[in-house]
Every structure is written in structure tokens, then in C-alpha cells.
Amino acid sequence: MKKILVIDACVRRSESRTKKLLDKALETFGSLHPDWSFDILSLMDMNLKYWNTETLKERDELLAKGQYDAPLFVLGRQFQQADGVIIAAPFWDLSVPAVLKVYIENISADGITFIATENGLKGICNGKWMLFLTTRGGIWEGTDMEQGTTYMEAVSRFFGIQKFYAAAADGVDVAELDCAAIMQSALRKVEELCIQLC
Question: How far, CA to CA in Å, does 179 sit from each of 15, 70, 183?
């Protein structure tokens, strides 16, 4: 049985168009692989904290002692052990919402999701793939201003995840465009990628 970690960073929750892409992914995977388990983290429901001077000191002391099973690293261990990762996050201030960045900060630790070697840092996560789902109000795809997808792809590589896939609905707030058609196209892309990943 494969363990899939689902990270829901949809800030607007029920009205989120990005959440619709996530729902399609879960529906598709669920119908094709009812034997897979899905651990869903709704980041908006979690009390995630970014590191400060004191908590960073605590983290570094635990890592120095090799206490990787400490409660502080539970999210990192969960991420490290997943066979696949789905992340849903809207395009937000040219990247992704802060809550997702804080989550990544929490799981990024030497000995948990990566290790330091003589040749540099090396990802040690078990995941074979990451699927990133996003929606963008404007036309951003393929521009150097679109840092959300490129950031998540870099995170995927950094943690040692072998393959990165993305599906996006671009331009959903542009009045002259057909938002419904854009969403339908993105939903089809999500379904195709999920079938491919099965």
C-alpha cells in the first residue's frame, strides 16, 4: 500500500479554485487505487510557527544529538516517509502562500529530509513524485515572475523526490477569458497526470 501525503494550502478553503483541482486529484487517485492511503494536512487548520531564535536553537540541539524522533520533527518524518506528495496552493504574491513556506521550513532539517555530505546537501525523502496543483488569477505561466511552481520544483529536487509534475489554471481572474473553460482544461490535466502517476 502506498502512502500519499496531501498538503492543502488552499487559503480560501471552500471557495478555492485550487481546492477543486485537489479534489479532482483525490477523486481520481481514489478511484484508481482504493488501496492507497492519503494523509491530508490542511495547513490552514494547523498552528504552524516559523523558526525564531529560541525554537531554532532547540531544533539545532536536537539535530546535533541525533534525536530525529523528537516531536519537533513529526511533520518532517511524515514527509520523508511518503511514497508520493500532492501539494495544492494558489499563486500568491508571485509564489505560494506563507503558510506553505512555513510548513516547508518546519520539515527542512538535516537528517530528516536531507543530509549534508562531502559533496553538498542530498535529499533523502522516500517520495517518487510530487504533484503540485495551483491556480493563478493573471497570465503568469512561463514568465520569470511565476515563482510558485519553480519554487516547488526546487523544493522537490532538494528533498530528493525523483519526479515533479504540475497542473495549473492560469488567468482565471482575467475578465476577457472563459474561467470555466480554463478550469475544465486544468481539471482534465490533473486527471491525466493522476492516471500517469498510477
Answer: 14, 46, 6
